[in-house]
Amino acid sequence: MSEHGSRSSGADAWWDFDHRLSRFLTGMRDGEVLILSDAGDDSRYVQFLSFGDQGIHAEVSPGTADEEVRRLGWQLPALNRRGKPVGASPNFTADAPTLEAAKLAELAVRVLRDVWQLTGPHALTVEKVNDSNGPPVSDLGL
User: Fold this and answer.
1) Half-sphere exposure of 45 toward its Cβ, with a 13 Å CA cutoff?
2) How many Å is the Cα radius of gyration of the chain?
3) Which of 13, 60, 82, 134 is deepest in the core (most CB within 10 A)?
4) What separation in angstroms does the CA of 4 have from each of 11, 33, 51, 79, 121?
């Protein structure tokens, strides 16, 4: 996609959301959590935890398309010999420095759009936890 005008309206919505999400993640404060859920199935979500200038940790809930999520670059949860997740979270993870939040935004959008096949950002619900005067969720345009 070489120019904004050549994308379909659904692609435009995801392209715009990707950029808004990137800016939002960069502005999150230490300890803030952003959760984007599939409005039709709240067991499907992507969440982000900010460590301020130290970086951002992202997680994707596991589900029926785990192999596709892994191929996008998300890390598998550590498993024990019985195939059960080690630790509290069975989620796939990705980490990036705060200044590289665009990488995490793109990974998230690819899961939401390409793996879960959501028709657009309008199909998401959003929650922000531990709000510390970072960007308001309205900046996401949802």
Assistant:
1) 15
2) 15
3) 60
4) 9, 30, 32, 42, 17
